[in-house]
């Protein structure tokens, strides 16, 4: 075999793995690829289709391998775009066999062992050789002799073929191996999706942390700025400091100035407490009032 592709051996090894050939060499078309051909013509040909038995017979008795099928599908799509009327009005078998023959000739040189002549194709498929020659000639003319296939086109069609086979395996068996999982995951930008999700999660986490930090700072600032204040009927309690109104001792009767000489100190204290409580203090703070006045008398010398 003398392929036009530089990495042909690697491609054959890849096809053996991705197209479900197992331990067999991809020397012909297996059953999944035969089903692919049937589905291709069922979707592309509006007024006709290919029988599964016909596709299976061509795959089994013909000389086509997966590489030839890839190139043949390129030719068929190219023909459908260039001459749609001819593609839809021609029998799928009369399109498929010439496409395989032409693809085999394109991939293999004339002097190689894998080179197959039209007579050998006709004999293996049990069709008339003249009919095969005529169909091939008609096919290549409607193709405008555009039989060159670029490596990029070959890679695109091979990827699509691998995805179809992997998806078919999943539908039939309801499970996938690592091979099918690797192929099907490439059809979905899973790595880009994971990267975008990671970026979104990081952004949300950062904003959440910044919000918590800002909220904590605001609460602490408000807590230190506010000073708890409670007013209880005239008594102001602020920062645990009691503030009492000023008293005008000049308005007290002269008899009170003589309290230190005529009465004991406890009696004097009771009188002043009663006087202050008449000014509006509540009974609940009587003890505080009494203690404050006792301290005042203890530190003051009363002289008439």
Automatic annotation (TrEMBL):
One of its GO terms (cellular component) is nucleus. Signal peptide: none annotated. It comes from the Eukaryota. CDD domains: CYCLIN_ScPCL1-like (cd20557). GO terms for molecular function: cyclin-dependent protein serine/threonine kinase regulator activity; protein kinase binding. InterPro entries: Cyclin-like_sf (IPR036915), Cyclin_PHO80-like (IPR013922). Belongs to the CNPPD1 family. This is Protein CNPPD1. It comes from Caenorhabditis angaria.
